[in-house]
Specification:
Number of helices: 3
Strand content: 25-35%
Keywords: Ribonucleoprotein, Ribosomal protein
CATH architecture of the largest domain: Roll
Strand order of the largest sheet: 2-1-3
Distance between the termini: 37 Å
Order of helices and strands: EEHEEEHEH
Pfam family, one: Ribosomal_L18A
Helix content: 10-25%
CATH topology of the largest domain: Ubiquitin-like (UB roll)
InterPro entries: Ribosomal_eL20, Ribosomal_eL20_dom, Ribosomal_eL20_eukaryotes
Largest sheet: 3 strands, antiparallel
Domain Large ribosomal subunit protein eL20: 3-123
Family: Belongs to the eukaryotic ribosomal protein eL20 family.
Structural class: alpha+beta
Shape: elongated
Length: 176
């Protein structure tokens, strides 16, 4: 699932009584700009009582990660609707981008809590320092002493003369 982050600005349509209505900006996570605009109107209708028919979108821009090569810890505040009611949650993830962390969150919420994508609302995302992590799952992965086993082991020839381009058998890559 490729989730993208959009910054959407919109307002109520200008009228004689209100020639310069207030502009509302919102960060929305969605697959594309069409779904992002739909989410924007959903939240604006719920919070400010402005319908799509009585409003206009001024700008839609995708937000990209400044440094997509470094791993960071993200804290995400989530609100979702289940069969029994509305619940608030705080989740932590390690990823190279906030979009990747939100994508992990959507996968986990659908797997653990059977939450449908449309019922999950991202309230807030923050970058969390390693010392301030709360969840044990992210604390274990954030330590510098994390060691992972080699799952694919390939043997190399000790000298170039022993190297062969074509072999009569398949390579054995299992750990003995």
């Amino acid at each position: 699932m490729s989730i993208k982050q959009f910054l959407i600005a919109g307002r109520k349509l200008p009228s004689k009584n209100e020639p310069n209505p207030q502009i509302y900006k919102m960060r929305v996570f969605a697959k594309n700009s069409v779904l992002a605009k739909s989410k924007f109107w959903y939240f604006l209708k719920k919070q400010r009582r402005i319908k799509k028919a009585n409003g206009e979108i001024l700008a839609v821009s995708e937000i990209f990660e400044k440094n997509p090569t470094s791993v960071r810890n993200y804290g995400i505040v989530v609100r979702y609707r289940s069969r029994t009611g509305i619940h608030n949650m705080y989740k932590e993830y390690r990823d190279v981008s906030v979009c990747g962390a939100v994508s992990q969150m959507y996968m986990e919420m659908s797997g653990r809590h059977r939450a449908v994508h449309d019922t999950i609302h991202v309230v807030k995302t923050v970058v969390v320092e390693t010392s301030e992590l709360r969840r044990q799952k992210t604390i274990v992965n954030a330590s510098n002493k994390a060691v992972f086993p080699k799952t694919k082991l390939t043997y190399r020839a000790s000298t170039p003369g022993e190297k062969s381009l074509f072999l009569a058998k398949r390579p054995n890559t299992t750990i003995v």
